Amino acid sequence: MARINPEFTDELKKYGAFDPNACYNCGNCTAVCTLSDENNSFPRKMVRYSVLGLDSEIKASLDPWLCYYCGECSSTCPREADPGELMMSLRRWLIAKYDWTGLSGLLYKYLVASVSAFILLAVAVIWFGYYESFHLETIMHYGHYFEMGAISVVFLFILLPNIIHMWWLTTYKPGVKVPLSAYFRCLSDLLVHMFTQKRTLGCDDNQVRWFEHFVLVLGYLLLLFTTVFLDWFSSQSLFVIILGYIESVIIFVVTFDFIRRRIQKDQEISKHSHPSDWFFVIWLFLMGLSAFFVRLFVDLNILENNIWLYLVHLIILVQWALIIVPFGKWTHFLYRSFAIYFATLQQAAIKQNGKKS
Amino acid sequence: MSEQMKSLEFDVLVIGGGIAGGEAALNLANLNYKVLLVEKELSIGGKMIMLSKVFPTLDCAACITTPKISEIARHPNITIFTGAETRKITKIEEHHFEAIVLQKPRYVNVTDCTGCQLCEQACPVSVSDQYQYGLVGRKAVYIPFSIASPRAAAIDIENCTLCGACERVCPTQCIDFTQTEEEFLVTIKSIVVATGFDLFDPLKIPRYGYGTFKNVITSMQMERQLAPTRPYNTILRPGDGKMPDNIAYVLCTGSRDKSLGNPICSQICCMYSVKQAQLLMGALPMADITIYYLHIRAFGKGFNEFYAQAQDMGVEFVKGKVGKITEKENGNLILRYEDIEQGKVQEAEHDMVVLSVGVLPNQGISDAFENKKLELDPFNFINQADILASPAKTSIDGVFVAGTASGPMDIPDSILSGGAASAETTSYLRRALL
After folding, report:
1. pLDDT mean values, one per 10 residues, chain B (434 residues)
2. Spatial distance between the Cα atoms of B287 and B290, rounded to a whole number of angstroms
3. Most buried residue, A43, A128, A131, B171, by most Cβ within 10 Å?
4. Are A43 and A25 in contact (CB under 8 A)?
5. What residues in B contact A32, CB-CB < 8 Å?
6. CATH homologous superfamily for B6-104+181-196+362-433?
7. In contact, B421 and B31? CB cutoff 8 Å
8. Considering only CB atoms, which chain B residues are within 8 Å of A80?
9. Residue B257: its chain A contacts at CB < 8 A?
10. Whole-angstrom Cα distance, residue A282 to residue A256?
11. Phi, psi for residue B290 in degrees, rounded to 5
12. Are residues B338 and A41, on separate chains, in Cβ contact within 8 Å?
């Protein structure tokens, strides 16, 4: 039996949706969507579910993640119900629902909660600096440990359980019988999509955005690797130093362009920005920029006298690693690729079951 | 300038000579009021005279319009200006308006023209025929269409090469290149605005490929192909002249669409599409007709039965708005839509697509009013100030509205509205005497 949640659209509005109730079910959005196909026809189905308040159906669906937001459905919607932004808010809502801690929902719905969390962490870092008498080497030493620690803790205790939760909601609970071998066979899909986001290319006119995004993801992952495992800030290797510079430049240049687009709102996709979108791009921009300058100050030998710069970088890093990565928009990196993985699994299951019968 | 302007005096100025304006003019003339009917096109009869048949009775549209048109044209109390525009309307006081009517040159003396068409044969210039909605060509000197009123030639001076061939062959010497624009100062007691509607231009929806894909046509073009005075004498797809056997209708093209600035229903597209589908089944007995719809609005008397009749005849109705049309090499078209009943994206191939274009306000007449404002409704149709008590009343006392100038409506409603406007005009004119 389907359960109806009459407050669902009101709840969704807190996640950024506009007026899904305006929809008159013409199906234009699904028909213009180049990613929609016979197996996964969206976004109208999601709009319908949202209007009816069928939140458990949405929870079990992978469709929101299969949309890469070209915005065509929104710009051509005869009712201006903005299906594209609805899909975006469903993704935010799903991030909140997958998160077992429930903190994501809190941060998405209440700006005050996000801002307080950011301030709290900033204060904690400054307090830590004060506690260590603003001794650069110690702080940098612990900063480096923090990076490694944060990565493992966030991954093991937040992201991994959340992905398992997502699998449970979308694949196990609806009773999809996936043959075990498929989990291994489809693994390549997961990795390809995780690192290339090639599905975006199926959207119309998305080539430039895909390229920027691709370079950004690459730059970000490499910078993460370079700082955490190659210890960029203390490295003596010229190769590592230059590599880090290039990566950090990529990050702040690309994110600067993303921020510019969100301000200019020249494309459908950049028209609506939820606070979580701003946090994501701005913090990524600040991370790239502050990391770049920290290393520059190291090379110019002036970081010792400008310890504030490293503290600023550390504040941004801590906020990023403890708020945005586990509970914010960062998670779309995982959920998007896992959604494609699960969708391929479901197709494999349908094929398998079809053979049996 | 105004000293040289010819002055004319009438009781009522009717702006627009379509079926609503014509009805209003005729009623008023029969009540012995002197009426000036100003029509911007070269013939009166409006859109109705171009149509094939009317729904739901399937009566021939031209057979209803032409007798009416000729009655209007021959009426002693009606003066008709075709190819003319009304400008600068001033309300001096109650029952006293002044307007300037601009008569554009036709370069043909209408009273002398016999409609022999020798000039058409002589003319070397061929251009697209706007009265056949671009389906065929016409000459630079041309009779607008075979049942036009007046059935007289006109010269399209923009495309004319001034070669003089028509002048030489004209047996009555009615061609006159010396004609110039003429302005008339018209004094009237009351005005009926019956400026009708515009059809939605599907070029505004590039994803439907109208204008690029030759076998995508508008419903008005199909209407011409089905009319008794049809250009091809059968149904052909314009791309290659093949007889289509799998025709699709795309409803709500430009209607009920906020993203195109027209959020309202055009009220006629469902029914004219159902009507065309039935006519096509008669014209092309082997053809499949599919109508892609959002909701079928068959609200009038006998409409739903008419819709059911189309279903019984085998017209297929698919619920879903067509999102995109692509063209195949052979000129066939692929329609992408979501089948709402199944909730799945589908693609279907058709060899001809008819876009059921909607009704848009014919804007501009409100700008002609100088000292009083003719108010528009939120959709830019003329606002009916007191829609329930006095539906023809506008924001200006003494100015009444008839037909689709006030909003989308079908032919019977337009005629009713023309009747209402004439009645309200009469009562306004009678008040002057009391």
Report:
1. 76 96 97 96 95 94 93 96 95 94 95 94 95 94 93 95 93 93 95 96 96 96 93 92 95 95 95 97 94 95 96 96 96 96 94 96 92 94 93 95 96 96 95 79
2. 10
3. A43
4. no
5. 207, 323-324, 336
6. FAD/NAD(P)-binding domain (3.50.50.60)
7. no
8. 258-259
9. 78
10. 8
11. -120, 130
12. yes
How do the domains of chain B map onto residue ranges?
6-104+181-196+362-433, 118-169, 199-359
Question: Rounded distance, CA B255 to CA B198, Å?
Answer: 12
Please answer yes or no on whether A78 and B252 come within 8 Å at the CB atom.
yes
**C-alpha span between B359 and B355 (Å, rounded):** 13
Chain A neighbors of B259, CB-CB under 8 A:
75-78, 80
Token pair listed for B152:
């007289």
Question: So what's the ipTM on this one?
Answer: 0.87
| Cβ–Cβ under 8 Å, residues B43 and B145 | yes
Q: Say which residues have a Cβ less than 8 Å from residue A20's Cβ, sequence separation at least 6.
A: A9, A12, A47, A50, A51, A81, A82, A83, A86
| pLDDT of the residue at B2 | 46
Q: How far is B429 from chain A (nearest CA, A)?
A: 44
- Name the residue of chain B whose CA is nearest to A37's CA: B345
Q: DSSP secondary-structure letter at A130?
A: H
Q: Which of A44, A75, A78 sits opposite B338 (nearest CB)?
A: A44
Instruction: Name the CATH code of domain B199-359 (choices 3.50.50.60, 3.40.50.2000, 2.40.10.220, 3.40.50.300).
Output: 3.50.50.60
DSSP string, B386-401: BTTTBTTB-SSTTEEE
Nearest CA in chain B to A39: B344
* Distance of alpha carbon A178 from alpha carbon A176, whole angstroms: 6
Distance from CA of A20 to the nearest CA of B (A): 14
- Give CA–CA dist A330/A14, Å, rounded: 19
From the list B85, B73, B43, B44, the residue with the least C-alpha distance to B181 is: B85
Chain B closest-CA separation from residue A44 CA (Å): 8
Structure tokens at A83: 């299906």
Give the closest of A24, A31, A76 to B338, CB-based: A31
Set of chain A residues whose Cβ sits within 8 Å of the Cβ of B346: 38
Out of A25, A31, A44, closest to residue B336 by CB: A31
Helical pair A275-299 and A307-319, crossing angle rounded to 10 deg: 150
Write out the residues of chain A at the interface with chain B, using a CB-CB cutoff of 8 A.
24-33, 36-38, 41, 44-45, 75-80
In this prediction, residue A267 has a pLDDT band, given cuts at 50, 70 and 90, of confident
